[in-house]
Amino acid sequence: MNFANFSDHAIPLFISSNILPLHLLYFKHSSTLMDDVYNNVVPSNISDLFTPTQDIHHYNTRSSSSGNFYTNYSRLNHHKNSFSVIGAKIWKSIPEVLRKLLKHRFKKKITESIFQIFLKQDSYVDIDTLLNEMKRI
Known about the structure:
Strands 1-2 form a two-stranded antiparallel ribbon. Helix content is 59%, strand content 3%. With 137 residues, it is mainly α. It has one domain (17-136). The radius of gyration is 17 Å and the shape is elongated. It contains nine helices and two strands; from the N terminus they run αααβαβααααα.
């Protein structure tokens, strides 16, 4: 596609082509799906995976008023790597300013934010780094 050598580093090629690597595409699409979960426009089998924090208890806390989702604690990696946990973490990392946008603006801003983080890191960006950097935007 870019007529690059086999040994060239992939990150500059992704940036010049304006394409996200696979794990960042996962983050982008998971963010979009979590926006749909938050706005109750997903099928019930997906929305049943998530419990809003405000439904856990009836007194007002910072967590319950922030619009986050509750995650059950588990020692098992199978549960820690499930979409119900990862999706809640992704949603928690997205700034509240972005959460309130309409769907098409939300998708555009998430993509722009991911590319900003990708350019700033100038190396491989894993999901944990992305989650931490999204909180700072």
